[in-house]
Amino acid sequence: MALIRNYKEVLEQKVNEGKGVRVRWLISKPEGAPNFAMRLFTVEPGGYTPFHSHPWEHEVFILNGEGELVGENDTMPFKEGDAIFVKPLEYHQFKNTGDDDLRFICVIPIID
Amino acid sequence: MALIRNYKEVLEQKVNEGKGVRVRWLISKPEGAPNFAMRLFTVEPGGYTPFHSHPWEHEVFILNGEGELVGENDTMPFKEGDAIFVKPLEYHQFKNTGDDDLRFICVIPIID
Hints:
homodimer; mainly beta; Jelly Rolls; six-stranded antiparallel sheet; three-stranded antiparallel sheet; 10 strands
């Protein structure tokens, strides 16, 4: 039987890196996901995720708000309705540059 | 360098199965995605995806609208903000039961 739950029903956790970032793990290993995990991030106005890189990719969809993606050599704006692909090992940081919360879906592979 | 593009910039294709279903492949193999693909589906009022099953899972996030997930033995309602996990081999069908377009993100593994 499929699992359906509203994102508001999922525990929201503070992310210790960056500033003003919270995460909800919507679908992941505990739910039986075999390959990839879907998370919902909220970044407060003025907040940002850590500037870092890792061996796995991000596939992101911007639900609300606007911001900037900071890379090693460039900074690119994004807004509601944008899809963002961050390649493995690519440095990246998501900054909220707007007046409202920035909310986005971010999918990563499950690595055992 | 990361890829950013609005979903409206992505070619929208008619899905031949089901009724009133269109899909945009936001991030997939052509964009360099190594593990999973992110698609955006639109289902018109009264429309539905095919009732079927396959060996791969779905991880879904409902962006707008409302509908019903039809399974082999049950039917469950869903609405905006819901996350849905359909397990591998599980029969499923997404029906739009509302008056507006139903739009959702659906992520699947890339199978070579």
